[in-house]
Specification:
single chain; 216 residues; alpha/beta; Spore Coat Polysaccharide Biosynthesis Protein SpsA, Chain A; three-stranded parallel sheet; 8 helices; 7 strands
Length: 216
């Protein structure tokens, strides 16, 4: 997870995942840039917290991803919108041979997502499917499970668009990807992403990574 002033929700997220995945050896890795009590709460619940100056969602989440030591790495948001109850099915699919399993908020119905966000996500998902030759219904999902070697084998370059990149780069590399439907929940706390500037950055990410040559 990447956190910034999530004292209201972070304990609920950690406790929910512990309750669902208690049979597994768990490690919580959080990159935090908060000015409130978020890191202390997380550490009191056993999380490993990496403190970082505010640099954006992708920079923070990438730090957590690369620091994680588990064979299966799960990303989630810190606002309680993603249900921990989906994690066992995601792990099962990884153990069956998939390399990435993405939780889809749009597959089989949508709840608690603003119409503008839903429209934008459907557009991004269609574009990712078209340009990267894959099937994607929720391109910006914040909850995914990865085999550790997938995280280590790809160069992650995006900040605002990292959630997109975490889907289309494994797809382009030929990794096996599955999506599972989830029931998206009401968020706790304040929305930090501007839908217009964030949406523009995400569109740039999709096009840039598909058509522009990487700099040496």
């Amino acid at each position: 997870m990447a956190t910034m002033n999530e004292a209201e929700s972070i304990s609920k997220v950690i406790k929910e995942f512990k309750g669902v995945l208690g049979a597994y050896p768990l490690e919580f890795v959080i990159t935090d840039s908060s000015t409130d009590g978020t890191p202390k709460i997380a550490e009191s619940l056993g999380a490993r917290v990496i403190r970082q100056k505010p640099s954006g969602y992708g920079v923070a989440l990438k730090e957590s991803l690369l620091a994680a030591r588990g064979d299966i790495i799960i990303t989630t948001d810190c606002d309680c919108t993603y249900p921990a109850s989906a994690a066992p099915e995601m792990i099962r699919l990884i153990n069956e041979g998939y390399d990435v399993v993405s939780a889809s908020r749009l597959k089989g119905g949508v709840r608690n997502m603003k119409p503008l966000n839903e429209a934008g996500n459907r557009m991004f998902s269609a574009l990712v499917s078209l340009l990267y030759g894959c099937t994607c219904t929720d391109a910006t999902s914040g909850m995914r499970a990865f085999r550790r070697h997938v995280i280590r084998s790809i160069e992650w370059t995006e900040n605002t668009g990292l959630s997109l990149e975490l889907f289309f780069k494994p797809a382009a590399a030929g990794y096996r990807i599955a999506e599972v439907p989830i029931e998206y929940r009401e968020r706790i706390g304040v929305v930090k992403l501007n839908p217009f500037t964030g949406g523009f950055d995400m569109m740039k990410t999709i096009i840039k990574c598909r058509f522009m040559r990487p700099r040496k």
